[in-house]
Specification:
CATH topology of the largest domain: Glutaredoxin
Oligomer: single chain
Number of domains: 2
CATH architecture of the largest domain: 3-Layer(aba) Sandwich
Number of strands: 19
CATH class of the largest domain: Alpha Beta
Length: 324
């Protein structure tokens, strides 16, 4: 019995690590984190790395961490089709508007997951779409990512006026705590903290379907196939490393458990294409795919449902995320 218990614990641990982690270009683990943690005890005395090695800057001339001494700097690692990152934007916008004239600088480090997120024009359009007005540097080669020893989207670091990392936050949540840290560093006590609404989240609970990749990564991780929490590709598909491309009669079927479904999709030539959605036999509003981004597919009561989708030829499907 003891051996069996040890074996079961090992299986659970390995399954959890597989479930949450993906290998990154720097040999670490890349994870989307819905509601995370802080590691201030580890980082309190660490000097913040700079932004050298990054690519194109948007909304700003290139910035140097040394030139930002005397400022409080919030370094935010994100990628624009990540739903967890998108959920943080309202708070980042609020902090930018409140504190940009009182000593706060936000630097968004855009480290892409998908190939289309490496395109500067796509990132520029995303900053406009989501109201990202602060400086953004493209980190297509994950140079800055590795310098910060980062493994997560989203991940925020607070750097004090002396250039030291004094606080960080992995994933969504803790917005009030993070803003209070910003206020402490700025010496501000006359501004109300933005309250956190009690909304849904993209998390892992109550048997919710996990993130599913619709590409060779997903095939290797068991995300493609038949059965619950697996994407069944029907008709003509080309499964590649970054996406699966819809051919003639392309459809998919998915038995999932959640209250929200999102799907990252793209088109190679920016031509508009249609996607038809049916949930438990009920037709939903058709989607027009014209930009490379995350698309909301369905929202309802938390539970188990069957999703069916039909695609025009050329639509590229990358990954599903789910909410509860």
């Amino acid at each position: 019995m003891r051996i069996l218990g040890i074996f079961l614990v090992g299986v659970i641990l390995v399954s959890f690590l597989w479930y949450r982690g993906l290998r990154d270009q720097g040999g670490g683990v890349m994870r989307f984190v819905p509601f995370g943690e802080s590691r201030t005890d580890v980082l309190r005395t660490a000097a913040a790395p700079g932004f050298s090695g990054g690519g194109t800057w948007l909304n700003s001339e290139p910035l140097d961490i040394e030139d930002l001494r005397g400022k409080v700097v919030l370094v935010d690692f994100w990628t624009y089709s990540c739903i967890n990152c998108q959920r943080t934007f309202p708070y980042l916008r609020a902090w930018w508007n409140k504190y940009k004239d009182r000593g706060l600088v936000i630097v968004g480090v855009h480290s892409p997951e998908f190939e289309f997120e490496k395109d500067t024009e796509n990132v520029r359009e995303a900053t406009q779409k989501y109201g990202v007005a602060w400086p953004v540097v493209q980190d297509n080669d994950f140079v800055i990512w590795r310098a910060y020893k980062n493994h997560f989207w989203p991940h925020k670091y607070l750097v004090d006026q002396e250039g030291k990392i004094v606080y960080d936050r992995i994933g969504e949540g803790a917005y009030e705590e993070t803003e209070r840290r910003i206020q402490e560093l700025l010496g501000i006590a006359d501004v109300a903290v933005t309250q956190e609404p009690q909304t849904g989240s993209v998390g892992f609970g109550m048997g919710q379907t996990p993130e599913l990749y619709v590409n060779t990564k997903g095939r290797g991780s068991g995300h493609l196939g038949t059965g619950r929490n697996r994407v069944e590709l029907l008709g003509d598909w080309q499964v590649a490393g970054d996406f699966s491309s819809a051919g003639k009669g392309a459809r998919l079927r998915l038995d999932f458990k959640a209250s929200e479904v999102n799907l990252v999709m793209s088109a190679p030539d920016s031509m508009e294409r249609e996607v038809r959605v049916v949930v438990d036999g009920k037709a939903q509003e058709e989607l027009t795919i014209g930009t490379d981004d995350l698309y909301p597919i369905w929202q309802g009561e938390f539970g188990r449902y069957v999703l069916e989708m039909e695609f025009d030829e050329g639509v590229r499907v990358h990954a599903f995320t789910f909410g509860s």
